[in-house]
Amino acid sequence: MRRIAAAGVALLALVAIGFGLTGMLAPRRGLEVVPLPAEGVPATLYRAAGGGAAPVVVIAHGFAGSRAMMEPFATTLAQAGYLAAIFDFPGHGRNPAPLPGGLADDAAAAGALLAALDRVVAAARPLGDGRLAVLGHSMAGDIVTRWALRHEEASATVALSLFAPTVTADRPRDLLVMVGAWEPEFLREEARRIVGLAAPGGRAEAGVTYGDPATGTARRLVIVPGVEHIGVIYARQSLEAARDWLNGAFGRNDAGPVDARGRWIALLLGGLVALAWPLSHLLPRAAPVPTGAGLDWRRLWPVALLPAVLTPLLLRLLPTGWLPLLLGDYLAAHCGLYGALTAAGLWWVRPPGPRAAVSVGAVVLAAAALAAYAILGLGGAIDRFVLSFMPAPHRLELVPVLLCGTLPWFLADEWATRGRGAARLAYAATKLLFLLSLLGAVALDPPRLFFLIIIVPVMPVFLLVFGLFSRWSHRATHSPLPAAIANALALAWAMAATFPMVPR
Asked: In what side-by-side order are the strands of the sheet with 209-210?
């Protein structure tokens, strides 16, 4: 019966993967996707195959993002006849140049980001008909508006989830501001303030155009329902609103397929996660009986609570900057100390005693298989369709350093929450406490750690997926070690690939 269920799940997972891939590749049909030489800035150009001269739209990603994240706008606009360019900012994606200034020097960082945008515009604009627009999300929303304020050649600007104190009532030209309805209140208020500069009484209403498009003073606010800071990029309403705004600015009415890939991403990644369950049955048995601390709730609570409280307090004065990875040094230290405190708690409540023999070879083989599936399978799909997940060569050396932090946490946590007699929902409880600990660290030191807020919404998804991998692995191998090693490597890999790089 178990084999039949596994085969059924595998079949459904493969069907989901197939449909997901088909749905995400469909908007690229009829397009040419080619590298764009841009003076050392990795960039890609999207255009209709055989299309003529048309306006160019340069599209920029947000903090800790990459050009892959902005591909839905590139394909949607290219299908509407535009030439669309996406690129990796310094310190992001596969751009080998670090981001000067980091979080400490806004002027240096903004200067480098604007210079990169300059290079991409210089490379892309000659390929079009001379007309130009810029589009940016989050951090890049501010950057593209700053750039458009300085360059009259920008006929229109589209900014998502931005904070831009430099915007005026009529500059930059023809500005569309979009924000997700589930984004933080201050971003929604900032969007209303910006558009309100051109609105009677200073209060903007969503969906109303203020100013005059004929003179370049048009302003419009779009509040995209049902999405947050990342979802606003993939929402159909966002993509259509951007295309329609640019059509209005350039006197065009072209349309085409809209790359609203959210459901297809969910189908693809959901299929890959589901496929891991039947594949886990192939993992080798590492121990004769299920191993782990097996803590009940009475013994688990002190082990779980103390690291959550003590870690942000002890790290409050820890200096940063010892890794060329923005916030990566702190997160690695947080994981490492959290793991050490958890291990100390385990020793205190349940001193080490006799354990079932564990096959080292089986642990290594199972960990390697899990890590390969997580990084190459699931991570490969993320890298292609969502966000850079395959570290460029200059980032790979950071993986073993970050692993020194992530491995102690996963080893201690996996051991604490697995084994015979382990408290029900213990794994979920310890992960929730870890997230609360990170939020506590941000609250204690907002200037230094504020941008960790960006990863907090992503971490529950990461922990849920890899929690499932852990559960399935433990059932198959009877050891928490393979999942601990694989999950620690996956998190270190993700941090090395996505966190912005800064000068050493």
From this structure: 31-35, 43-48, 83-87, 56-60, 132-137, 154-160, 175-180, 219-224, 209-210
